[in-house]
Amino acid sequence: MRTAAKRIAERTYMLTDRLTGVNQFLLEGEERALLIDTGYGTKSLPKAVAKLTSLPVVTVNTHLHPDHSNGNKFFGKVYVGERDLPSHGVPSNELFEGVAAAYGRGALRPLMKFARRLALIDPSTAEYAPIPDAIDLGGRRVEVIPCPGHTEGSVLFADAETRAVFAGDAINGEQWMFTCPASSTGAYAELWRGLEKELSDFSELRISHSRKALPIGFIREFIRAFETIKPENGRPSKIKGTPEPVTFYEYESERYGRIRVWAYPSQVR
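Request: output the structure for the sequence above.
Response:
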């Protein structure tokens, strides 16, 4: 797998795994660079980072899921949200093992073996530390904002220099809530109502699974999608092996198209 690099603003780069399409971001200050997420662990990522900057690199994860953190092994010390520290456990490993058991029979067994190499997180391959409230890169300060919901320790990175918010999987058109059973749709909507005000001076959201930025106005429609969720409107997904049936709820935005929320029925409250 190869990593493509694109300059998206002054001293700011998007790094994309060509096979999986997952984005990482590199921000340079005068003294340090910040690497936001490390992908599935593609060997070409550290090489791409080294070509873009000669500064010491501070590595962070928006959250501890394998498509954002399995490359941590290349960077040594990594900062994550407090509740995503591996010392609290690795819920995504448990979720994957359940799904793999449901699908890992017959013709799908070889595929599950390959998926296991990508999807399981080994915490022993990196040193983890709780993320600070802000990261000073020297002449460029990036604020860290807790955003629990996709995982308990999910965070946003707000960069005043580019007026961009690097959001990982905390907001997008296909929002997974079932990956954090402790969360609820009502609480997440309330969280984003507060964030909408806090982020009003920013212009765009940079997310992990699209090369296109979302305008900051997407937050308003994202909240509306959660506000319209009713238990009776859910539709069952085809995902197997989860503790509860994963259900999805759809909202049609006139400006942004379909927004879909994936959750367990017990989370709709």
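The chain has one domain: 3-106+117-267.
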